[in-house]
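cron nightly-structures :: item 1 of 1
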Amino acid sequence: MNWKKALFDASPWLTTIGLFMLWEAACRLFKIPPFILPAPSQAVEALIEYWSGIWLNASHTFVTTLIGFAIAVVFGVILGVAVGASPLLYRALNPVLIGFNSIPKVAVVPVLVLWFGIGTVPAVLTAFLVAFFPISVNVATGIATMEPELEDVLRSLGASKLDILWRVGLPRSLPYFFASLKIAITLAFVGAVISETIASNQGIGYLMISASSTFRVPLVFAALLVIAAMGVGMYAVASLFERRHIRWAIRNLERGGFGSGG
């Protein structure tokens, strides 16, 4: 049984390594030119060679993404709580949110450039626009799906609407919220890089466009690997945060406490 558990724990690493080995073997076996598809070893070589430039641009993208993601979390939670707690707002705003999310954000970037100019602000706003929707929708869903019978019972025990929202609604929405965080952080990276490829003079997106214009494709793939690593890292952080804080929701739901002073 121990080897099964060890295999289970190591499966993400084994899958990743296997994928890179398959990629490397295919490039060498079919002799694919580096300007079409570089092998992983060539991308790593470019990563080492241009490390200083990659680090500078990657750190800019990372900070930009985190700022946009943080704004998305605040705005998404506030909107999600408001929409989830009010059936009227849920019905009224749901089509608007869906329609807004359906707009390709790459089409919004030129508008942001007209408003704010080329630079960091469009990248932050694009990361925010991409990330806030899953957060707000998931929080609203977690609150809105509370059983009416449970709400009626709590009201009969003397709980106010605010008490029900705080004691039951918010803890109930936490699994939805944390699930949305893992999606939103990866989408925020996508939004930031999209904006940087169109309207920025720094960042991973800008680096990729500059490298592709001079046919330095291994450098492009090195930048892609860095973005993937940052996304996986932030996803892991969100998962760790979820495991450590979801207990608060479980304790709150188990404790209840209405009508007993708790």
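cron nightly-structures :: done
Residues 154 and 224 are 51 Å apart (CA to CA).
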